[in-house]
Write a structure and sequence with these properties.
Spore Coat Polysaccharide Biosynthesis Protein SpsA, Chain A; 25 helices; 25 strands; 37% helix; 12% strand; elongated; transmembrane; golgi apparatus; GT64_dom; glucuronyl-galactosyl-proteoglycan 4-alpha-N-acetylglucosaminyltransferase activity; transmembrane helix
Amino acid sequence: ITGEAEPRSGGGLGASGQPWVLRRVRLTWLSFMLFFILVFFPLIAHYYLTTIDEAGGPEKRIFGPRPGGELCEAKHVQDLCRIRESVSEELLQLEAKRQELNGEITRLNLRIEACKRSIDSAKQDLLQLKNVISQTEHSYKELMAQNQPKLSLPVRLLPDKEDPGLPPPKSARSCRLRSCFDYARCPLTSGFPVYVYDTGSYTWGNYIDPLVRQAFAAAVKSNIYVTDNPNIACLYLVLVGELQESSSSAVPSPSELEKQLKALPYWRSDGHNHVLVHLTRRSMTQNLLYNVSTGRAAVAQSTFLEQQYREGFDLVVSPLVHALSEPNFLEIPPQVPVKRKYLFTFQGERVESLKSSLQEVPPQSFEEEIEGNPPADYDDRIIGTLKAVQDSHLDQVLVEFTCKNPQPSLPTEWALCGEREDRMEVLKVSTFALVISPGDGQLVASAGCGMRLFEAMEVGTIPVVLGDHSTLPYHQFIRWSEAAIIVPKPRVTELHFLLRSLSDNDMLAMRRQGRFLWETYFSTSENVLNTLLASIRTSIQVPAAAIKEEPAHEIPHKAGKLAGTDANLADNGDLDLGPVETEPPYASPRFLRNFTYTAADTYRAWNHAPGPFHLFPHTPLDPVLPSEAKFLGSGTGFRPIGGGTGGSGKEFQAALGGNVPREQFTVVMLTYEREEVLMNSLERLNGLPYLNKVVVVWNSPKPPSDDLLWPDIGLPVVVVRTEKNSLNNRFLPWDAVETEAILSIDDDAHLRHDEIMFGFRVWREARDRIVGFPGRYHAWDINHQSWLYNSNYSCELSMVLTGAAFFHKYYAYLYSYVMPQPIRDMVDEYINCEDIAMNFLVSHITRKPPIKVTSRWTFRCPGCPQALSHDDSHFHERHKCINFFVKVYGYMPLLYTQFRVDSVLFKTRLPHDKTKCFKFI
């Protein structure tokens, strides 16, 4: 078995041995070659290269080592190494920051998701609250409907022509408003429509004096209450006189006149709600309606007999002196000096008592006369007493009881002497003017007395009415004791002492009040008609219609980019100016006392300037009269002032000056072809707190450029188109102004936000005055005997220019519709003085000076185009304006003040030459 195995094994080696040997030989060869390449080839290469470097010299060596070890010590290699290390470190840091930011982003994403979930939850809560509020309001309305009766306006009755009318009164003499006036035709919301009969529709209308007829027609045409629809009228006016002097034969008899009155189309059997108006231009007039049964129609005329006059129903009106002409204010003497040449004057003639009064008989005392039989006529005693005062020469008086050309008069009435021009010349130099009532006590009102009263108030002479039985015009509403002295005839012996005892202040106050009454109620035919209607409307307690506002015809404009904020104007330090309104602007309340004022403020409205707004139209804002503050105490003129919480001042600022009601103001900016300046001024208003809107009065006939981009300040900017270039447009009561507070500002004025806010806070505590920044004053020039305008800095001022000032919108109505027209005409003539005119108006009404607040001396725009005020003629015109305005008002209404308002937290640097002024804080 072993022998057989070896050959088999040997045979196996032989068969496979040859490949194994070959593989071993190959491995050996490969190992030798690798050894040769790795060992001998580098040596050979090194030798060869070394041989080449040695053959070329040391300086030409390429591969051999350089002298001094230049390769290892190269600086740029070290720098590169340091840069590589720095870059590596920065890359590591950036990577760390990237990872940190990724983590922060992840955390913020988680917070965003949480906020979104909380917003969704808050929306759900808000929706639930709204549903609860809605349900609560619905429940409240249901409870109110169950527990309160339903109130509605009175039903307005509009009867037809066959209306039987009211139950007849016991007698025509017993007519009063409650028994003879149909209130159902005049509900509170009726607007007091008045229908006026055409004078050509009745027979005697053609015989009415043409001047009276034309003046009445002109007044009717301009009256806001007149309507052409008789079916809705509350009142019906019939002009019955005055008839022409040449038509005395055509005067109808009482029975004929009564028939013609009943034939009027809307007389309705008894004439209820009719007023028969008899206007006169003469001292003696026909009493057409005497012995005429007027039914339930009221009578308005200047002359009444006692048996004819129905107290509380009929009206005593003033004569119509200026029928178609306007009073010339330049011919009216000034109200100062208070004392004039004559202490008192009287010119008149009474034929019946003249003979007995001139007898040389020693006068008896009133006590002696009263002990016996009372005198039948005190006029004789009046004549003797006045002549005795004149002969005593204690005071210079003028009394004349005979006339060269006496005017026709009623029996027992004192006739006027001479022509109107002659009488006016005497009254202009008289301190007091006597008005002696008719001797006949049955004559309760006469046109002659009304004429004397009218002429005296027109020239600023204080009327002295002798006779307390006389009924003066509109005595139910006008407190005549504030403008005239009413003395019973038995006190004529004490008249001289009484007149001498009056102080200058009292006389000046009475003279001003008389001028106000004359100018407001009696001066023109329009005022006469307005006063007549206002007296009736006030009696039946119907509120006045709203005075018209100037419609703002807007100029389309496009807003550009969002306005920025000037860093200089916005740097307010630590002052918190208030919130920038994010909600829609809100307007001031309107008509707060529209239906209640008539019963409460009748006397105040009639007797104190500026009167017409409570008698004639309302202002939409309807504040109480500014001038009433001096009669009723501080704060009653406008809204009440609340108290602040005190403290460090933060609460004061948050409460907007310590006042309770929330309020905004409107900026009114007048501009004329200075687009760049205007755009900069508008942009400075961006972010101003409590700003309602901006009204830009575009005073140029040329519209703004089409490519002009207006700044977007986040509030409405209303650009108003004007009919003509007039500075009076600044004070028009634009309907776009919906706030009581107006900030009038020039387009080149620079005011900081903190300055504006401080001025607004001060105005809210002095709402009846002008509150602003640039102060001016007036001065008397002794050499030229005239007034001067001065713009120098001083410790005293009397005006605050409206180029940067707050005032109440109420004064915009007064300036545009009540202030005498000659003042506005002069502003248009000179293109100047509108700010002076506004200061005159406010001081005239309130008898208070304006209030100046401190500014930071940044008022004028540096680098702006030159304004009108830089011209030398500007100041000369302002001198003329002041003197002209004084003539129109009759006195200087401006008042001096050394008062200036500073905030206790307001830091102001004063020039060294102004430190002498007292500063009130």
